Amino acid sequence: MQQAHAAIDFAEVRGQEAVKRALTIAAAGGHNLMMIGPAGTGKSMCAKALPGILPPLSRDEALEVTRIYSAIGQVPKGQSLMTARPVRSPHHTASPVAVVGGGTIPRPGEVSLAHHGVLFLDEMPEFPRAVLETLRQPLEDGDVTIARAQGSIRFPARFMLVAAMNPTPKGSKPTDEVSQRAMDKYMAKISGPLIDRVDIHVEVPPVPYQQLTGQKNGTDSATLRAKVIEARQRQAERNGGTLKTNRVLSGRELDEFAPLDPQAKELLRQAMGELGLSARAYDKVRRVARTIADLEGLDDINVAHVGEAIQYRLLDRQT
Amino acid sequence: MLAQVHSFVLQGIDPLSCEVEVDVAESGFPKTTIVGLPDAAVKESVERVRSAIVNSGYPFPMARLLVNLAPADIRKEGPVYDLPIAVGLLLAAQVIQTPRHKQLLFAGELALDGRLRPVNGVINLAILAKRLGVEGVVVPTDNAEEARAVDGIEVYPMDALSSVVGFLNGTHEVEALGPVSIDHEFCSKPTPRSTSPRCAGKRR
């Protein structure tokens, strides 16, 4: 394989195998992901390691990314094509124009600079609502349309969204009634519709001391990447050779390609009732279950796959 | 005396054809006007172009000049038109004496001593050239690699305005660069025009 595609290898992240698992699923199916956990548990490290387990850019994808960076003069000198998936981490003080694009002569924003890559929003509740709202169009359509009096300009913006947040403003889990209420208030800051567009919510707990100091290194990026590439291969075969991932499967396509067996259906029905999942969440669970089955090399989705997918609707349970 | 040089304008990341028209009057008060919705950097082009032409040893016409960047209703920005404007002027002054420019797209910023500086959007320029079916692009050397990502066109890397003039007049040979060979694992290496071998020594 080519040179390292990410600043950090997953082997450097101590413990957090469950989070790595969630990120592998996200990478395999192109799903958006939210990490919830106290400060210092490795959320940023995981986001930086993520490009290392994504498949390499296809030639057409690389061309699109290069076209965007070329338009703002950021293709490294002497390089023909940008070959690494971009990772953009705008600070939460970035303006809406900086994030989504615009200006008198429209420029691509962070979402376009993350095209075919990862947009990492650390401390997501700290982002102004106005900025988070601008993410809706790219998450739905994969591009951003900037309207001007003279006409509209379209910038591509198909990215994988990775968000991180602390469960409370202070950064630690709530211990009593007062801090629980503070946490509920903090969680309410995140717009429902945006959470609805995130497929996977995963908790990132503090790592036990033994794992931090243990000799064994965690699962490394190369291993996870191989799995991701295989799962993507299965998706490509299913989607007629296109690079479409499970994340964009429509309801009808889910019915055709991701049918659930009776046990799985029953489990999902129960979960819908108990957790109050929306119709959109229902489709998300099916998409994630489809990816989990793909990672195992299985065509049929069983109850274990659905069970795991339901676990990743953490935030639906809390609100 | 009217000259037309082909260049591009970016709308988002999509390139459109931009015709740089340079009209040198027979006489008249030496004043230069640029039209076609130029931004500040484009308006300053003329100053850079004047110095670059004179410092490269060519005559600068002492007459009324009109530069039009078509289409007239799309905003133009950046120093990318320095080179096409300079080429247009030198055509009108008959310093460049061949029609070779008609099959090429031009872009580049000019330093006051005539050297070419890199500009934005060159890969999109190359894509436009391929779409139009022209022979190739004339770009600053620092941008050449970017243009090579597109196959089916010649890339002529230039260091300075004098190289461009010599090349167009046929007095100065410039080796065209062909497309780079890029295999799926992205081990890219420059290749000579005629062959595109897969990259050797790839690590697995």
Q: How would you describe this structure in keywords?
A:
heterodimer, A: 319 residues, two-stranded antiparallel ribbon, 11% strand, B: 204 residues, 6 helices, 25% helix, globular
Quick recap:
Helices cover 45% and strands 11% of the residues of chain A. Chain A is an alpha/beta fold. Chain B has helices spanning 40-43, 45-55, 82-92, 122-132, 144-147, 161-169; strands at 2-11, 14-24, 32-35, 65-70, 104-106, 109-110, 116-117, 136-140, 154-158.
Description:
The complex is a heterodimer of chains A (about 325) and B (about 200). Chain A is of the alpha/beta class and about 325 residues long. Helices cover about 45% and strands about 10% of the residues of chain A. Chain A has helices at about 15-30, 45-50, 60-70, 95-100, 110-115, 130-135, 135-140, 175-190, 190-195, 210-215, 220-240, 250-255, 260-275, 280-295, 305-310, 315-319, and strands at about 35, 85-90, 100, 105-110, 120, 145-150, 150-155, 160-165, 200-205. In chain A, the strands form three sheets. A five-stranded parallel beta sheet of chain A has the order 2-5-8-1-9. Chain A has a two-stranded antiparallel ribbon with strand order 3-4. Chain A has a two-stranded antiparallel sheet with strand order 6-7. Chain A starts with 16 loop residues before the first helix and ends with a helix. The mean pLDDT of chain A is about 85. The N and C termini of chain B lie far apart (about 60 Å). The model of chain B is unreliable at about 185-204 (pLDDT under 50). Classes of the chains: A alpha/beta (about 325), B alpha/beta (about 200). The interface of A and B includes residues 56, 62, 71 and 72 of A.
